[in-house]
Design a protein that fits this description.
The chain is an alpha+beta fold. It is about 35% helix and about 20% strand.
C-alpha cells in the first residue's frame, strides 16, 4: 500500500498497479516495483507501514479503522484501542422498549429481561452444545439398536458418550464462570506444552477413537 504526500500531508493512496501523474510529470506503475523507497520518497510516494500493536483477535474484539499519519519521513497506519465484544447478553431497557427511535422497535411482548443482543457466552455455549450433539449423533444408532433389538451397547461406546456429556458440562461451566472477554479468550487460546502437545484451558469434547 502506498500513500502520496504533498507538503507534509497525505493526499491520496495511489494503487500500485496504475501509473500516477504528479504535477506535469507522469510516472508508470513501475515506480512501485522497480524504484527504491528513497526514489519514491523523492517524488512524494511512500510505502505505508502498518502498526499492528493495538490490533486484537477479531473473534473477541472490535478493532478500530486504521488511521494514517506522516512523520519522521514515513507514512504509518495504526489502529486505535480495540473494544472487547460483550461477553454477557444485553437486555432491552424500558427506555428502548418505550422509544423505538433509540435502537429500533422491540419485539412484541419484550420486557427488561428480554435479550436484545447475545453476548459471547451465549454464542459459545450454543456452539459447545451443538458440537457435543454432533459427536453423540455419531453413536446414537447404538442406542436405537438397543431400544429396537435389545442389543447391548458396547462399554466403550457408553464410556465415550458419558465422557462427551461430562466434558460438555465442564466446558459450559468454564464459559459461564469467565469474568470477562479476555478470560473467554484465554479459555480458547492454544498453548504449546513442554511435551510438545498443544492444548487450551477449555479443553475439547472427546471424539470416538
Amino acid at each position: 500500500m502506498f500513500a502520496q504526500v504533498i507538503d507534509g500531508t497525505i493526499t491520496s493512496f495511489p494503487k500500485g498497479n496504475k501509473g500516477i501523474q504528479i504535477g506535469d510529470l507522469k510516472y508508470s506503475a513501475t515506480i512501485y516495483t522497480l524504484w527504491t523507497e528513497a526514489e519514491r520518497n523523492a517524488i512524494g510516494i511512500y510505502t505505508v507501514e502498518i502498526d499492528n500493536t493495538n490490533f486484537k483477535n477479531q473473534e473477541w474484539y472490535i478493532n478500530t479503522d486504521i488511521s494514517y499519519a506522516f512523520g519522521s519521513g514515513k507514512v504509518t497506519g495504526s489502529y486505535g484501542t480495540a473494544t472487547a465484544k460483550k461477553h454477557a447478553d444485553t437486555t432491552w431497557t424500558q427506555a428502548q422498549i418505550d422509544d423505538a427511535s433509540l435502537v429500533g422497535p422491540a419485539p412484541d411482548g419484550a420486557d427488561t429481561n428480554t435479550v436484545r443482543l447475545e453476548g459471547l457466552k451465549t454464542v459459545l455455549i450454543r456452539n459447545v452444545k451443538a458440537q457435543a450433539e454432533g459427536i453423540l449423533n455419531q453413536t446414537d444408532w447404538y442406542v436405537t439398536r438397543k431400544s429396537e433389538k435389545s442389543t447391548a451397547i458396547p462399554s466403550a461406546i457408553t464410556t465415550h458418550r458419558d465422557a462427551v456429556r461430562s466434558k460438555q458440562v465442564a466446558m459450559i461451566t468454564a464459559i459461564t464462570n469467565a469474568s470477562d472477554t479476555p478470560a473467554l479468550e484465554t479459555l480458547y487460546t492454544y498453548v504449546r506444552n513442554e511435551d510438545e502437545t498443544v492444548t487450551r484451558p477449555l479443553g475439547v469434547i472427546p471424539t470416538l477413537e
